[in-house]
Each structure stands twice: as C-alpha cells, then as structure tokens.
Amino acid sequence: MPAPRLTVVGSINLDLVAKAERLPRPGETLTDATFSRIPGGKGANQAVAAARLGAVVSMIACVGDDELAAPALAGLEEAGVGLDALKRTSGSTGVALIIVDAAGENVIVVAPGANLELRPEDVTLPDGDAVLCQLEIPIETVEQVAFNASGEFFLNAAPGGGRVPAADITIVNRYELEALPNRNGVIAVTLGAEGAILLEEGEEVARAAPPKVEAVDGTAAGDAFTACLVVSLLEGRARDEALHRACAAGAIAASRFGAQTSLPTAEEVDSLL
User: Fold this and answer.
1) Structure confidence by residue, pLDDT tens digits, 65-112
2) Does 217 participate in catalysis according to the annotation?
3) pLDDT tens-digit profile of 5-61?
4) How far is CA 135 from the centre of its chain?
5) What does the longest C-alpha to C-alpha distance in the chain come to?
6) Quick one: CA torsion of 209, 215, 220, 222, rounded to 10 degrees?
7) 48, HSE (Cβ side, Cα atoms, 13 Å)
8) Active-site annotation holder among 217, 223, 240, 270
9) CA-CA distance, 84 to 73, in Å (whole number)?
10) What is the pTM of this model?
11) Measuring CA to CA, which residue among 253, 245, 7, 38 is closest to residue 127?
C-alpha cells in the first residue's frame, strides 16, 4: 500500500541538554554535566519520527529569524520532512532547557519563542491528509486545525491543563489524562514502563507492554510512541498491533540519548518486536 500522508502542525525547538549523574536539588549547582544541542520540540520530534517510520510528512510550524533556527531545523531536513509551509518571524526560535540524569529521568523547561506566533491564519491543510497536533502552539491554532482537518485528526494533548479540542484519537500520559476536560472518544494513555492502554468511551479496549530496555533518556519517548501509533493506524494495522508497535518505538527512544537522535525507524521497531 502507498505510504500514509501526514501533516504535523506543531512546535520546533532547539534542545539544550545537560547530562549529569543526578538531577540537582532546588538551589543546588552540579558541575559534572556534559552539554549537547539537539533538534527538538514535540511537533518536530513527531514529524521526524513519522518520517523515519515510513510516512510522507509535511510540517507547518514557526521558527525565529535567529542563529538557533538552522540547528533546530536540521533533523527535519535530514528526515525529508516537507517544510514548504514553514513560517519565519523576528525573535527567538523555541528553546527547551533539559537536564537528564544517569537513570534517564529528566526535567524540562521550555521557552516557546516563535512557536507562540503560529496563528490560525498561517495554517492551510492539504486536502485529505491526516493531521497530528500537540499543545505547544497556541490553542486557537490547534482548535482551527481540528475544525478544518478533512482527514483523520490526531492530538497529543501535551502539555496538559488547558482547553483540548476533540480528536479522532487523543494521546496522553497518565497525568495529562487527569487534565482532560472530558474523556469521550478514543484515548491512548502511556504508562511509562507499564506500557500503554487504549480507552474508548472510558472503557479499556486494548493494552500493551513495552519491551525491556535500559533507560538512557526519556525525552522523546512519548513522541516516538505518538508517531508510531499514528503511522501504524494510518497503515491500516489493528489497534492492538498499533499499540504494541508504539510501545516498542517509545522503548527504543528511551534507550538512546537525545530527542530526534533517539527516534527509531520502522525496521528497528519491527526487529525489537
């Protein structure tokens, strides 16, 4: 069958990552860290992941007119994600400040910058394409995308806590599930090392456990899960199979350092399974 077509409307960041033996306590300074600059942002991570998994992906997003834009876009360009609809604005490209410890746990602070300047009028969706959004861009833009999408609309409702438009499938972690204003429709819930479940109208209809891996960095594990679930469903796979593949993709990402540097290919997912 032809490769599924997916448009991602979302955020692009440059991740500034410090890796230390442990996370600092409030007010504490640690000096044993190593530093990396890695392309990131939930939207960009999911676009890159979907492209590596075999989808034909385009992205609608906004970056600043600054020195951070080129390294932030490098992973998308390498993965072959279409960027014809990219908006550039004065000011800063989005930045995420990330600390990762030796067990793969992390803390993240995001300065969204240009991501907040992606307005509803900036988005023209290709007819018939499936669409994937997250909540790192203005909610008004996400709501307009949900209204205008002519194909399936998928929403990774992260970060949680605000308005959430209806989607064909909503993807959240257990904490974001608590923040959803309603739990209607189909919801995929990630549970970390416990795997994931699929809910339909509040009832569990599928469950999957992840393969065992050694955790290195969980930064983009949820993005790998989201992209793999979406691509697997667009390929026509059954929900159970799609959920198991998504858990495998998330596990692979958690076993590697960085955001886009950790995202697996379809062959890697199938090999792990």
Assistant:
1) 999 999 999 999 999 999 999 999 998 999 999 999 998 888 989 999
2) no
3) 999 999 999 999 999 999 999 999 999 999 999 999 999 999 999 999 999 999 999
4) 10
5) 55
6) 20
7) 30
8) 223
9) 13
10) 0.93
11) 7
